[in-house]
Amino acid sequence: MAGKVQLSFISARNERIAKLLDGEVEVEGVDLVWTNSDPSETFWRQLKFDEFEVFEMSFSSLLIAKARGSDMVAIPVFPSRRFMHALLSVNVDSGVEKPNDLYGKRIGVGEYQQTASLWTRGVLQHDFGVDQFSVEWWMERSEELSHGGATGFKPMEGIKFNRIPEDKSLATMLVRGELDAASIGRAFSNEKNVIDRSTTIRPRPEEFAKAKPLFPDFIGEGKRFFDTHGYIPANHCYAIRGDIYRKHPWIAFNLYAAFVRAKEEWYAELSSHVPSDLIFGSQYMAQTRSIFGSDPFTYGLKDNQKMIDTMIGFSHEQGFIPRKPDMEELFAPPMLDL
User: How far apart are CA 105 and CA 298, in angstroms?
Assistant: First the structure.
């Protein structure tokens, strides 16, 4: 549009930004040219080639990249939240019945440096006493296509680190007893991508009987975590390429304001979007609000300070960053008071 700054934007689609992507909410002074991309591919592309001007980014990879001199400026908008550790499945013959049984076991992760793995290791260690050095870690993504390959990742000294063979995946190794635990949700999806092998190398349907959830009461574990820590863990944020931010520093606040507005407008319509075939959908929504409040996906630094500090602490503790950065080093200055 005339008079607007046109910026390339890469992100997965989610409900909270849908109105922004569809043009129902505009970024003042900006015309976003959106590329829809799976996060695993988005992060690899951006870390490897720095090709987009505004982008979704793994928070763990952002910390590592910034520590290594990458030129990006974060916005405290967190599009993806989940209880990453609670998504682990275990092999039924592994002897693992509760989280602390994972001590000394073999755990598979898609990407060792990804934020989901950062949270999984941190929560297992601090909430359940499973020391990261006691576990044998197996990573699915190849070095060539991993976020770590783009940032120069090397595991911390003392970590037992292995790569899954190219003809196997997290899911096949878990159900065949070669791993004791792994998050294999992507093996059930219809999507396919070159980064995550579990989307293409899947077990036979009958083999999935060999996997069971580490936390059978997923909602109960989510509530326990939230009651203990006060937040739902985030794994992604948005960021602006440094050269673009310096040229147009006003873009950071305008983007943030548009993300907030898009989310608020989605929430205003949420009750009308519950699918009718989810018979207890409205009750589940009420249960979610009773546990997590009216906005489980909070934006800004003030409401997310504890969570961000925890991610930074985990990253330093797990050997990804040499020191803990201040907020001023990560986020655009206008964001610091939000």
Answer: 35
> What is the value of pTM for the model shown?
0.95
Identity at 281, one-letter amino acid code: G
Q: Residue 313 corresponds to which tokens in the numbers above?
A: 């602490």
Element housing 236 (H / E): strand 236-241
Q: What digits encode the pLDDT tens for the residues 227-265?
A: 999 999 999 999 999 999 999 999 999 999 999 999 999
- Whether the CB-CB separation of 239 and 72 falls below 8 Å is answered with yes
- 168, 158, 86, 92: which is closest to 128 by C-alpha? 86
Cβ 42 vs Cβ 11: under 8 Å? yes
Contact 299, 77 (CB under 8 A): yes
C-alpha 113/C-alpha 67 separation (Å) is 14
- Comparing CA positions, the residue from 200, 165, 159, 196 lying closest to residue 179 is 165
- Let me know if 148 is exposed, middle or buried by CB neighbors in 10 A (0-12, 13-18, 19+): buried
- The values of phi and psi at residue 186, to 5°, are -70, -20
Closest CA to 195 of 138, 159, 148, 151: 148
